[in-house]
Amino acid sequence: MQRILDQAPEPWGMKVSAVEVKNVDLPQEMQRAIARQTEAGRERRSKVIHAEGEYQAFQRLTDAANVLSEYPASLQLLAGQQ
Length: 82
Fold this sequence. Notes:
By secondary structure, the chain is mainly α. It has helices at 2-7, 28-70, 72-81.
C-alpha cells in the first residue's frame, strides 16, 4: 500500500504522508469469520474465569478440611449447628 501511495502522486511532485480510512466494506464471509473468532475468544475467557472459580472453591474446601482435621472438636461443633 505504501508503494502505491508513493508512486501515484510522484509525477506531480507530491508525497502522501497520511491516509485515513473512513469506511471499509467487508464481505459477508469475512464478517462471519470475524464474528466466530470474537465469539470463540469470549467463550475461552468465560471458561478460564469459570475454571478459576472452581479452583478457588477447591482451595477453600481444602483449607476448611485442613482446619477440621487439625481441630477435631470443630467438627463436633459444626455438626451440632445443623
